[in-house]
Design brief:
Length: about 475
């Protein structure tokens, strides 16, 4: 599990460690790790041109000490001080002793553009808001320039805690982060600014009683969650997932949701709805029922909503059932807050799976607001509905019912997954995992992980269809289980 902690938690852990460690030790550990990462990126340090963008805080201090280390190895290092009177004094002295120099911020763009390496030490976890005016031309020069951009701790201008990037921010190729991941390094839009994230251990203790703000499952975590059929399992013991989806107008949504469900580990898939013919033609193993959800026969979980149009009665019937339910697409619009909350009060899990537009409609805000503040939006929805919520996107988030605790972020997504019907496949897959007995958060995050991986396998740099993604789920599953 990869965990990310809020700035407040990182600061608390930092204070604890500082009380025990020798003065300045943490910054030296950070600078050593940063310099090593920069050397890796450069390949050859001797003779390289390095420019440091240095702000007023310790983030700039890290950059200056790392710059001193590179200068001692023969790099030509120049520091651009954005707040000349307030740059880290010890770091600046170390850089000068090592032969580095200082250039004025005004007119430093050309120097930034020509550097082999630009180190962004403008601001770190002490930052508020986007880049300030004086830093913007330098960030732009770094982006235009020929060199690699390495951000110190996080790209300057993004919000460490929320993943928001409301103003201008540095676009890094690599971010070297210290002590703990910050949520902004894992959640879009900020994550996109971070590039490849490298972690440097400085001895910070974040485990124990400290709750991560965000956590990302890795292969081994997902492998532990996936159901394994026992020798005596029959199809009913492995769980039956019901899919109430599709309409005369949108039969395809039903076909795709059933396709996802068939590959999610449930023993059987029961389909109810007007698209039975289309479902059977594509997936003859489906148990198709002519009756509504309440009379279709036993299931261990329901998926409701993909392509459902305005069929509120079916959604109502499914929500009344005392088994886990995954609500997607049209179902989200048709499921009343009270009906969903009542399920929570009865102790039955519900997982809602909106994309940003659907989440915005449910929250009564603009889509952009959800997209720019994804963490807050997913927590808010999970709080309002008392249900687990999976917010789809390039960094899919899963919040537990109520919205508290650590939010899961999915690390396997690919932009190619933003294709018609891909969400229907995900809903079927998630429902199948619910039927197999996973909790709502585990089913949602394992489904997102497998779906993202399947999308990557299917895409390999080219566009994919939702069917392609569904077809590669078994390969994703094998890859996870085999590690
Ligand atoms: N955690 C750890 O264990 C360790 C942490 N370490 C390092 O320390 C970093 C945190 O250092 P920090 O606390 O000095 O804050 P930091 O981010 O440098 O900026 C502070 C100053 O910037 C300013 N400012 C604010 N917003 C701004 C903006 N948008 N654009 C421009 N400037 C802005 C604001 O000053 P103001 O001008 O508002 O008075 C504020 O005082 C951390 O990220 C890591 O790199 C490591 O050394 C090892 C151990
Ligand atoms: K930075």
């Amino acid at each position: 599990m990869r965990t990310a902690y809020s700035v407040e938690t990182v600061r608390a852990a930092e204070r604890e460690l500082m009380a025990r460690a020798p003065e300045g030790a943490l910054m030296q550990r950070a600078a050593a790790g940063l310099a090593a990462a920069c050397a890796d990126v450069l390949g050859r340090v001797y003779g390289s041109r390095v420019v440091l963008l240095v702000g007023s805080g310790d983030n700039g201090g890290d950059a200056l000490y790392a710059g001193a280390r590179l200068a001692r190895r023969g790099a030509g290092v120049r520091a651009v001080l954005l707040a000349p009177g307030r740059a880290h004094a010890g770091g600046l002295a170390a850089l000068r002793r090592a032969g580095g120099s200082v250039v004025a911020a005004g007119g430093a763009e050309a120097c930034v553009e020509q550097a082999d390496l630009v180190v962004d030490g403008i601001v770190g976890i002490g930052g508020k808001g986007g880049l300030r005016e004086e830093a913007v031309p330098l960030a732009e020069a770094a982006r235009r320039g020929r060199g690699v951009v390495v951000a110190v701790d996080l790209p300057s201008g993004v919000d460490a805690d929320t993943g928001e990037a409301r103003g201008a921010a540095v676009r890094a190729d690599v971010t070297v982060t210290f002590g703990a991941y910050k949520p902004g390094l894992l959640i879009d839009p900020a994550r996109e600014y971070a590039g490849v994230v490298r972690f440097v251990d400085i001895g910070l203790e974040t485990g124990g009683a400290r709750t991560p703000e965000v956590e990302a499952l890795q292969h081994a975590d997902v492998a532990r969650l996936l159901p394994v059929p026992a020798a005596e399992s029959d199809k009913y013991r492995r769980g039956v997932v019901g899919v109430a989806a599709g309409s005369a107008r949108y039969p395809g949504a039903a076909v795709l949701a059933v396709g996802g469900a068939l590959r999610g580990g449930a023993g059987a898939v029961r389909y109810v709805g007007p698209a039975g013919g289309a479902v059977l033609a594509r997936h003859p193993e489906t148990l198709v029922s002519e009756r509504g959800p309440a009379r279709a026969g036993r299931v261990q979980a329901w998926v409701v909503g993909p392509g459902a149009g305005d069929d509120a009665a079916t959604v109502g019937e499914v929500l009344a059932a005392d088994v886990p339910v995954l609500i997607d697409a049209d179902g989200l619009r048709l499921a009343g807050v009270e009906a969903v909350r009542a399920r929570g009060a009865r102790g039955v899990p519900t997982l809602m799976t909106p994309h940003a537009g659907e989440a915005a409609a449910l929250l009564g805000v603009e889509r952009e607001e959800v997209e720019s503040g994804r963490l807050a939006a997913v927590r808010e929805l999970a709080g309002r509905y008392g249900a687990a919520v999976l917010l789809k996107g390039s960094t899919t988030l899963v919040a537990q019912a109520g919205g508290g605790g650590a939010v899961r972020v999915n690390p396997t997504g690919t932009p190619w997954l933003a294709t018609a019907g891909s969400g229907d496949v995900l809903s079927g897959l998630g429902g199948s995992l619910l039927a197999a007995g996973l909790s709502a958060v585990d089913a949602g995050s394992a489904a997102a992980y497998l779906h993202g991986l399947a999308g990557r396998f299917a895409a390999e740099g080219a566009p994919v269809s939702a069917e392609d993604v569904a077809a590669r789920i078994p390969e994703a599953w094998r890859s996870v289980v085999r590690g």
